[in-house]
Specification:
- It is built from five helices and two strands; from the N terminus they run αααββαα.
- By secondary structure, the chain is mostly helical.
């Protein structure tokens, strides 16, 4: 029982971070753009590298937000077959095929971003105006696609072995929804 409770705490913490970090990144972008605009137009000066920092934060916001929408099954999807009269088994087959394609595509993007991150780390590339490692620009790709890949695997497992396409069947979504109800 204690082990299950600890697992839920870890999942809840991870779910909270998945939602909080893109929100924090969006606030950071808005703050940086406001500060840059005030400095540029009010004081006729600017901070070197501010645009690059905003772009890096934007990458984190976009990719971690995409991972959240993947977790909640709110991502953009084409539901061409919803209006076509198909049997339940045929819909299940299409759902499984769709899940396999999603796992493959996100897995490929995760692998490519991981390989690119390793090559950036090995070469020691830097972001020119800031002098920081280019890995800070690559890390959101690795995190975002990695988390999306994990969520797609969970969805495929649930749709294939649990036999249910319901959002509530995904454990991370269930915990996320419980947190929202408590607030």
């Amino acid at each position: 029982m204690q082990e299950s409770r600890n697992g839920n705490i870890i999942l809840r913490s991870f779910s909270f971070l998945e939602t909080f970090l893109p929100t924090l990144a969006m606030f950071g972008i808005a703050s940086l753009v406001a500060i840059e605009a005030i400095l540029r137009y009010g004081f006729n000066t600017s901070i070197l590298g501010m645009e690059e920092v905003a772009i890096i934060i934007g990458l984190y916001c976009y990719l971690l937000g995409s991972a959240c929408s993947s977790r909640d099954n709110n991502h953009i999807k084409v539901n061409l077959l919803d209006d076509v009269p198909l049997s339940k088994n045929t819909r299940k087959v299409f759902s499984i095929i769709s899940g396999i394609v999603s796992v493959i595509v996100t897995g490929i993007f995760f692998y490519i971003s991981l390989k690119y991150g390793i090559s950036v780390k090995a070469t020691g590339m830097k972001v020119v105006p800031l002098g920081i490692s280019k890995l800070f620009q690559v890390l959101p790709l690795i995190l975002g696609f990695g988390i999306m890949f994990i969520h797609e695997i969970i969805w495929l497992y649930i749709n294939t072995f649990k036999g249910n396409n319901s959002v509530e069947q995904n454990p991370s979504v269930e915990l996320h929804n419980d947190e929202q109800k408590e607030n």
